[in-house]
Design a protein that fits this description.
The structure holds 3 protein chains of 3 kinds. Chain A is an all-alpha fold. Chain A contains 14 helices and no strands. The chains are: A mainly alpha, B alpha/beta, C mainly alpha.
């Protein structure tokens, strides 16, 4: 479907798309107020399960992917149980601990490669199509959830859990559902990643990944369902924007910039915009810090959406 | 006043006890609330009234005693199940959902009646038509709007709950509780912080709620409201019941007077 | 043999304890998970290294220098990451510190390269034997400095006016303000103290491991979090004891069970504590 795209763009979009899916996995429990730093762990569960199924048991990819998501969902509900009575910092640490334990298991379990990692996973040439499909389904799902009574109940739990419970909302089941659903989505993201990168090890799904996923949602805006998409898209686009800026910089005629101090500034700027990991990340970190001062609610808020006057079905009770 | 003789007993409490460490908050409480009554629970601060409400709604679990609601024993460990059975409450320190609108808040109360299970709610959420609203949603919105009209909040329905003035927030609490279609409504100090005019309005509201067939337990400090509106009054002090009966009798009861004033009034 | 493991455990534990102290102090006064603390630790290590290698300083001066530099870094963090960010959105300060972590770590990679760097030898190597125990001068030095710092800190917290101010703020901001305490200044001071100690810990780690890298911060951060929880959020003494305890557990499990499993124990402990004793072994001391 996307054959016209060149290889570089394709890979870029695949990874960005997987990040979008991962962002939605964080969004689900977050909607009920549960902040999870363990989504990378659920991605790992889905990734390893689906890879085991395709590599060791010859299961076709689609089935393996779905199974990976299902297994991740079960794990999600299992983690969801202790998470029920834990909040705030403690929940962050619990989910972080879970994610790290998964990493340790991946490291010490030789069946999946142990320290050498899981190699030679079959490559799925349709990954981009799968990713796009999953994202479309997720958008449909979340746009409906947001307008529904269940979505409203989730918000109520987030805003005052005891009041929600006493008003007849089955808080326990809804929280478990959110954890399970979020984990399932993460599992799908993990499975898609594994069959595109064809290699993974215990460091692939690490803490920083969980942190990045959290950041996507909070930066995009955690109160509307477009937030995760926006946050993941914007933050993944930044290095590309910086690269484009650098290319543009190179187009400037030499005569304009060949004198001091402009040439020094030019060199520094050019060097900084170089699409190299460390510098890109410094910009990323600075953007986070600035955003939390300037727009701590994220880029997109419910009020912001209303002001944009989007079509009726994206807002509530217009 | 509606005829209560045929109504029977809505709520029967036997030997209800709750201890916090060495402190006994509620001691062997026996109580009967008749159907369709407005039954007040009064007593000095710390007498155990809020503990009683928390035990009824399931937020706290009792150390001893039995609760029977409409003839059935109540032992659900999860508060939401008790709400589904028909026991609703408002909170003394208002507990609203700050970022939901007034209408949305009341519709939260409707949720448990519209959807029997989380799975049903989830399937509905996922499979509903992309445009317009489903029938449950429309029904919930209609019920909620009617309740808002009943309580005089209809024109505030798009306002954010946290933006409302105090008196309207109290009304919203009641609307939300009523949305769960309770048979028994627990009002926890609804007149707190109200001026006399608002209290008179509240009197009317509570009476109108009773006329809809809801039994009410009223925990209050405002004696004029309590004595004016109640069919029956129970007095607690230090976790023990010290008097029980119609308001006129309670007002004369020396034990009650002593509990509130701390001294015997010479007869 | 077991004594060697015990000493190793104490050394590792001392490192954890010193890092956790900063975490728990900051959490105590602000209810904030100061994620960037691990990077402060890393900066301290590199500061010490550069002072020794390029400044020709001896180890004591280097440690002091690292402490000062990290304290200043703490000040910077307060002005950039803590004060300007609204506190009523619980995740915003956390994400700001995450941003700071990313900036610091990658600044280090950019300036210093991503490789591990050898920490120069600064202490004369010799061995001491006390009964059945053989301990090297390096080990003695590290433990000695760590214990000294911990004792000094404890004295500060428990027996000085500054310490009392910190404890009051940790209890409740409003009460502290009513009692005439400048809450903002106390928070700043807490950051400086915590960061300074982390700086010393960084240098000690460099000496102990004879190699440091810009990536040493993240692992330290996570272990620090576990220790903080184990000791009780906001509980400084708890953090010290819990740190030593965790170090011992890790080393002993590595020695007698297996090295890959050693992290497993730490995280298993984390989860067990969260589920069954969330107040930690010694109780919490944080802001309402």
């Amino acid at each position: 479907m996307f054959d016209w795209m060149d290889g570089y763009t394709r890979v870029l979009l695949v990874f960005a798309g997987i990040n979008v899916i991962a962002a939605y996995s964080f969004y689900v429990p977050y909607k009920t107020g549960q902040v999870s730093l363990g989504q990378a762990g659920f991605m790992a569960v889905g990734a390893y399960s689906s890879a085991i199924l395709t590599q060791k048991f010859g299961v076709p990819f689609a089935v393996a992917l779905a199974s990976g998501g299902l297994i991740a969902a079960v794990t999600g509900v299992a983690v969801g149980f202790p998470a029920l009575r834990i909040k705030g910092v403690y929940l962050l640490l619990l989910t972080l601990g879970f994610s790290e334990i998964i990493s340790v298991i991946a490291l010490s379990w030789d069946y999946v490669g142990g320290a050498q990692g899981f190699r030679n996973i079959s490559f799925n040439p349709w990954t981009l199509e799968y990713v796009a499909g999953v994202i479309v389904v997720l958008l449909l799902l979340f746009s409906r959830l947001e307008r529904s009574s269940l979505g409203r109940a989730m918000d109520a739990i987030h805003q005052n859990e005891t009041a929600a419970e006493v008003m007849g909302i089955d808080v326990v089941r809804i929280k478990l559902l959110s954890f399970g659903l979020g984990a399932a989505i993460a599992g799908l993201a993990g499975g898609l990643y594994a069959h595109h990168a064809t290699y993974m090890d215990s460091t692939t799904f690490n803490v920083m990944l969980s942190v990045e996923i959290l950041v996507f949602v909070v930066v995009g805006g955690g109160s509307t369902f477009w937030g995760p998409l926006l946050g993941a898209a914007v933050l993944n686009a930044i290095p590309e924007i910086l690269r484009a800026l650098r290319d543009w910089l190179e187009l400037l005629p030499v005569e304009w910039t060949d004198f001091y101090p402009i040439n020094r500034a030019y060199d520094l700027l050019h060097d900084f915009l170089d699409f190299e990991n460390a510098k890109r990340l410094i910009a990323y970190g600075l953007i986070l810090m600035v955003m939390m001062i300037a727009r701590p609610d994220g880029l997109l808020t419910r009020d912001g959406l209303l002001r944009l006057r989007l079509p009726r079905w994206k807002t509530r009770y217009a | 006043m509606p005829d209560v003789s045929s109504g029977g007993i809505c709520l029967a409490i036997e030997g209800l006890t709750k201890r916090f460490g060495g402190f006994c908050a509620l001691n062997e409480l026996d109580l009967e609330v008749a159907q369709g009554h407005i039954h007040a629970l009064i007593g000095p601060n710390g007498a155990g009234k809020t503990t009683f409400l928390n035990l009824l709604t399931g937020v706290l679990s009792a150390d001893a005693g039995k609760i029977t609601f409409n003839g059935q024993p109540v032992d659900d460990s999860r508060p939401f199940r008790r709400t589904v059975r028909g026991i609703a409450r408002t909170f003394q320190n208002i507990r609203l959902f700050p970022h939901l609108t007034v209408l949305e808040t009341v519709m939260i109360g409707e949720h448990c009646r519209a959807f029997p299970s989380v799975w049903a709610a989830f399937t509905k959420a996922v499979l509903q038509r992309p445009f317009g609203e489903c029938s449950e949603e429309r029904q919930m919105r209609e019920h909620a709007t009617e309740l808002l009209k009943f309580l005089g909040l209809a024109d505030r329905r798009e306002a954010r709950a946290s933006d409302l003035p105090y008196g309207e927030q109290r009304k919203l609490e009641m609307a939300r509780a009523l949305a769960t279609q309770p048979k028994l409504l627990l009002l926890d100090e609804p007149a707190a912080g109200m001026n006399p005019r608002e209290t008179v309005e509240l009197d009317g509201v509570i009476t109108r709620i009773r006329e809809r067939g809801v039994t009410i337990i009223l925990v209050e400090h405002d004696m004029r409201l309590v004595m004016g509106i109640s069919d029956c009054v129970t007095v607690l002090n230090f976790g023990t019941k010290i008097a029980d009966g119609p308001p006129e009798r309670i007002q004369e009861d020396p034990a009650v007077i002593e509990a509130y004033l701390g001294e015997e009034v010479p007869l | 043999m077991i004594y060697q493991q015990l000493i190793n455990g104490l050394m590792l534990g001392a490192s954890y304890a010193l890092i956790a102290i900063g975490y728990t102090l900051i959490f105590g006064v602000l209810n904030l998970l100061y994620f960037a603390h691990g990077e402060v630790f890393m900066v301290g290590a590199f500061a010490g290294l550069y002072l020794v290698v390029y400044g020709g300083a001896n180890i004591y001066v280097a440690m002091l220098g690292a402490m000062v530099i990290c304290a200043l870094l703490g000040v910077l963090a307060v002005y950039v990451s803590v004060r300007p960010v609204p506190k009523d959105r619980p995740l915003a300060p956390l994400i700001s510190t995450i941003g700071l972590t990313i900036v610091l770590q990658n600044l280090a990679v950019y300036i210093l390269g991503g490789q591990q760097v050898a920490f120069p030898e600064t202490i004369e190597q010799s061995l001491y034997t006390i009964g059945p125990v053989t301990i090297s001068s390096v080990q003695l030095f590290v433990l000695g400095v760590a214990v000294t710092v911990m004792v000094l800190l404890w004295l500060l917290i428990e027996h000085t006016k500054v310490g009392r101010a910190i404890r009051t703020v940790a209890e409740n901001h409003e009460t502290a303000a009513l009692l005439g305490v400048d809450v903002n200044r106390v928070v700043l001071l807490t950051f400086m103290i915590g960061s300074g100690i982390a700086g010393v810990a960084g240098v000690l780690d460099g000496i102990k491991n004879s190699g440091i890298s810009p990536f040493m911060g993240l692992g330290a951060a996570i272990k620090g979090l576990i220790v903080m929880l184990l000791g009780g959020l906001g509980n400084v003494l708890g953090a010290m004891v819990a740190g030593l305890l965790l170090g011992l557990i890790e080393i002993l499990s590595a020695a007698y069970i297996g090295t890959t499993e050693r992290d497993f124990f730490s995280f298993a402990i984390l989860i067990l504590i969260l589920l069954y004793r969330p107040n930690g072994l010694f109780g919490t001391r944080t802001t309402e």
